[in-house]
Fold each of these.
Amino acid sequence: MHKYFCVPTYRGLKPGGRAAVVLPDNVLFEDGQGRNIRADLMDKCNLHTILRLPTGIFYAQGVNTNILFFQRGASDPRTDI
């Protein structure tokens, strides 16, 4: 589900454009889909920072939060989503 939030954000960027996305911890670090999301972001753009915040900042208590900072690469049909 969260992958479908990251993809429109990435597609909306111009080549070289920057974005930040806030996601709960389990999205990035669960087995399977979390691994696929990280690999996809690193493959399709420059995922340069994952900022892990303490629990309760953006979500309910007990849920850690991550902010992903990334930049879209040059437009290339082989790397477009």
Note: Residues 33-44 form the longest helix (12 residues).
Amino acid sequence: MAHSFCNIKESAEFVKAAANILFSTFSAINKDAWPTEEEAKKAGIIGIVLGTDDETNSTSLSACSLTGENIFSEISNIRNRKNHPYEFYKKCGYSIIGAIPNANGINKPDIWMWKNI
């Protein structure tokens, strides 16, 4: 199989291709563990949640101490500093719904995202 590198941000086609690769990979491991969105809808599932760690200071959320007083403004103003995948997930229809401060160490939050299906 030939591989090439690209900037996934360049087109919706790249985002879809990446999603297909992920789906194919996980389906090959265990199809029952990775239902399609259509199968999930038929089963009554209304959305998908995911967590994406920032352990490498890749977002602005890791540049500050998240507290109950600033967490919502920091999430609203999040910046991608080092190609963190949250932007990929946003292009796939997910929205940031929260963050767990220090989930992976001091100033290393877990970013929670949701997608309605």
Note: The chain has a mean pLDDT of 87.
